[in-house]
Design brief:
The chain is α/β, with parallel strands linked by helices. The protein has a domain at 77-168: Rossmann fold (3-Layer(aba) Sandwich). The protein is 36% helix and 25% strand. Strands 6-7-8-3-9-10 form a 6-stranded mixed β-sheet, with helices on both faces. It has a 4-stranded antiparallel β-sheet with strand order 2-1-4-5, with helices on one face. The longest helix has 16 residues, at 182-197.
Length: 256
């Protein structure tokens, strides 16, 4: 389980500037962000505020222009490409708006692939872990199906399984319900909420207040800066409607 005082990830004076525009566009403007172990942090903001850029920069998917990002006490900005790729594979999990599963592989093999890449000599353990994940997220019955033979919600649950296959320290989710209808969205958020309750640290970007209301903490970006923070505490089914109403009122105050 999570240790409330343990630090999972920290960014310091993080900037991202795109020099290809005239004048250059500063998308992140000195972001200081701390994520605690076991926390479910949500990043919100208007379109163009820098939400996804922040997620990509703190996860090492993109290089910031300046500043530092610390995970496990290491500054990710000092790692070379091979070291960063290995860190993403073994210490991080990713869920995107689209599933990005391979069409030539079954659901099971898509989930298994990163675990085998991370530890090719531990196949039996990986297979057992993946089977347990598929059962937990109720997709074991479609394990041998292709990606066009399952629902969007099942695809996203498969993506969550794949993200957890290497037992990451932190899971990053970028608009994980953006391509889903409301019932499938709730299904995927139930899965992510379960992951969080097991102690996994989650950083999620979303534009959906119903999804954001699942988080322990919500930070709001405007023009590449964190300008406000909301800390609603643990989500339950009983307080879900009230949390969403409270969050909507707070978001309106931010100009959302």
């Amino acid at each position: 389980m999570a240790h409330a005082n343990s630090l999972a990830l920290r960014s310091q004076d993080l900037t991202k500037t795109y020099a290809s525009t005239d004048p250059p566009t500063r998308v992140l403007d000195g972001i200081d962000l701390t994520v605690r172990e076991g926390e479910f942090l949500v990043v919100m903001g208007a379109s163009g505020s820098g939400k996804s850029t922040l997620l990509y920069s703190i996860s090492g998917m993109d290089r910031p222009s300046s500043g530092s990002v610390f995970l496990d006490g290491r500054d990710l900005t000092t790692l070379n490409d091979a070291e960063m790729s290995r860190t993403r594979l073994t210490r991080m999990g990713f869920v995107f708006q689209q599933a990005y599963l391979l069409a030539n592989l079954s659901i099971r093999d898509n989930i298994l692939l990163p675990a085998l890449k991370a530890a090719p000599d531990a196949r039996d353990e990986a297979v057992a872990r993946v089977q347990a994940l598929m059962e937990r997220f109720e997709i074991a019955h479609v394990a041998d199906h292709g990606i066009t033979q399952v629902s969007g919600g099942q695809l996203q649950r498969a993506s969550i399984c794949r993200a957890l296959a290497c037992e990451p320290a932190i899971l990053f989710a970028d608009e994980p319900t953006g391509a889903l209808n409301s019932s499938m969205s709730a299904e995927v958020m139930d899965a992510l909420t379960g992951v969080h309750r097991d102690g996994t640290t989650i950083v999620m970007v979303t534009h959906d207040p119903a999804c954001a209301a699942r988080g322990d903490r919500v930070v709001y970006l405007r023009d590449g800066r964190i300008v406000a923070e909301n800390t609603p505490g643990p989500w339950t089914r009983e307080n879900a409607d009230r949390r969403e109403d409270d969050l909507l009122a707070w978001l309106r105050n931010q100009g959302f």
